[in-house]
Design brief:
Glutaredoxin, Jelly Rolls, 3 domains, 4-stranded antiparallel sheet, 15 helices, 20 strands, disordered N terminus
Length: 432
């Protein structure tokens, strides 16, 4: 080995040589042809006509973290997973990609598409939603490799929506979140789409969702409801295990998963639809499954046998729907009265206290925030959840057989800082 003498002449040459040697290892390779750039790092290749800005430069790191999460979550060998290449086409001008032959064999798509080891994204109005599409399509790609398919259409798209809904803060990626506010997920819009869909067509039953097809009509509505169904089933205290069994590898893209899952729930499907109604009523920004998602069947097991004349129940101001331990027959009247004070908001270290009548300073669903409300779940699953105001006292007449539930009137994402309980008394066949 020849040793170079130390002198000012050699110093800039050594620095320049070292820079050339180190640069390819520390940053990705970029090639450009006819307005389309190819950006490669490790197993990831991004092909785009858009500027390769810091956001796009972050994508290999985002995909690294996503794949590591999926390996852990789905028991994938990380060494094997690193051998799976992925080419991401991020499209600003579709004509450029067509002229370059990069869309040959790709069926028409509106915003995103996955085909084997290639995914395609149309440019979006926000970085967040573009990352959402990237992770959505990358989920399809990972499931294609890990499970040989994505499962029935509702599960395939629902899981991609679950994993695509993310946080990316200070270089750390979190997947499968439920957003706490719309500002953090610009142009995502899933909750608005769900509420608009209910207003236009009513809430779909779970059986409708489980048998969704792949047609393009109402696609965004179907994706949003598939996402909601996956959140519901994956977090449910009873049904999550059954879904896990039905979705075990290998998967395909048929209705096999749906049929296996539906068969496992056949003897309790009415309970599934009742729980679904309660879930959809609350599902919104800040939803926390552990404190809001309930299973009615075990809670109501003995409530249809014998009817107490009256009862008393404590309602937690921080939780969602809570069973009142009361089963009503068609036409029965119940008098309901409530008392107590509880905190519905902490703001600037000051507590907003409410009574069962609520705080008329703010309204939610056309009722004062903090007001006690009731929900009646019918044994007839074709009937919608009946939500009604209670306040300090009211009377309710059951229009069918069913169960009474209680909670305070406040957006689900605003209840985390609540504290305190109120006492509710129910008397069947009498005034409060």
């Amino acid at each position: 080995m020849r040793i170079l003498p130390t002198c000012k002449f050699w110093t800039p040459i050594l620095v320049a040589c070292l820079a050339v040697l180190i640069a390819p290892q520390s940053r990705a390779q970029v090639e450009s042809t006819a307005g389309i750039k190819r950006f490669t790092k490790d197993q990831w290749t991004i092909v785009t006509d858009l500027p390769i800005d810091p956001e796009i430069e972050s994508w290999p790191g985002i995909l690294d973290q996503a794949l590591a999460t999926w390996c852990q979550k789905w028991s994938i060998d990380p060494v094997q997973a690193k051998s799976w290449p992925l080419v991401v086409h991020c499209i600003g001008d579709r004509k450029l990609f067509e002229q370059a032959g990069l869309l040959e064999g790709v069926p028409p798509f509106d915003d995103g598409f996955q085909q084997a080891d290639r995914v395609f994204l149309i440019e979006q109005p926000s970085n967040y939603y573009r990352r959402h599409l990237l992770l959505h399509e990358a989920t399809h790609w990972a499931m294609y490799h890990a499970f040989a398919g994505g499962g029935s259409p509702w599960f395939m798209e629902g899981m991609a929506e679950v994993e695509g809904t993310h946080q990316w803060i200070n270089g750390k990626l979190s997947l499968a979140i439920i957003p706490s506010d719309p500002q953090g997920v610009p142009h995502w819009g899933r909750f608005k789409r769900l509420s608009d869909s209910i207003a236009a067509k009513g809430m779909p039953s779970l059986k409708q969702i489980l048998y969704y097809g792949n047609d393009r009509q109402d696609r965004q509505d179907r994706y949003s409801w598939s996402w909601a169904a996956c959140v519901f089933f994956r977090n449910h205290p009873v049904y999550a295990t059954m879904l896990q069994r039905a979705s075990a590898a290998p998967l395909d893209y048929s209705l096999k998963l749906t049929q296996l899952f539906e068969n496992s729930l056949a003897d309790r499907w009415d309970w599934v639809e009742r729980d679904w109604k309660l879930f959809v009523d609350e599902f919104d920004f800040g939803y926390q499954p552990t404190s809001n998602l309930i299973a009615l069947e075990p809670l109501t097991k003995d409530l249809s046998e014998g009817l107490p004349k009256d009862l008393s129940v404590d309602v937690d101001s921080a939780k969602g729907w809570q069973i009142a331990n009361l089963f009503l027959r068609t036409g029965q009247q119940v008098g309901i009265s409530a008392e107590g004070t509880y905190v519905v908001r902490m703001q600037n270290q000051q507590a907003w206290e409410s009574s069962p009548s609520g705080i008329s300073y703010q309204y939610y669903r056309h009722m004062p925030m903090g007001k006690l409300i009731g929900g009646f779940v019918s044994t007839d699953t074709s009937r919608p959840l009946d939500v009604f105001a209670i306040g300090k006292q009211t009377e309710y007449v059951a229009q069918s057989d069913g169960w009474l539930l209680l909670r305070i009137n406040e957006p689900v994402g605003k209840r985390q800082d609540n504290s305190g309980k109120l006492t509710v008394r129910c008397a069947i066949g009498s005034r409060p």
